[in-house]
Give the backbone structure.
Amino acid sequence: MQIDLSKTAEIYKAVNLINVGKNRYVAVATCNLRMPWYAIGIAHYMEGNCNFTKHIHNGDSLNARTVQVPAGRPIAPPKFGTRYTWEESCLDWIRLKRWDKWQDWGVSDILYRLEANNGMGYRNRGEATPYLWSYTNHYEKGKFVADGKYDEDAVSKQVGAAILLKELM
């Protein structure tokens, strides 16, 4: 994997943002002692820019269940008050994605889980997903701009998860 060096500042900004939340990622990762904290951190960055006031599922507000896909999560009501904690939401997401059951956490396994979290639309098209490969030699252009809507000229403006994984391991 060759990284676009013109994106170095943006890459390290993302890595630092994930590292700021490390203690919270470590805390929820204890539901599966093999799960590396940085896998959760990367997913949180990709889905919600590491914003702890948003559901990790999709970036919706923690003030209610999710509205976007997957809608209606978490299923259980908030434990305290009317607002979900980020940890409640994250544990629901981990169970939904079955990360609590996953035992293999090598590089290819993590990349697969992250790709599956975003969806297999690119794989089904025979293309590399920008979710993983943005800012590398494996991706130039083409992305889903909405669920089911692909634009062959759109370019991802987000650091790819593979770069983040390389930097955080």
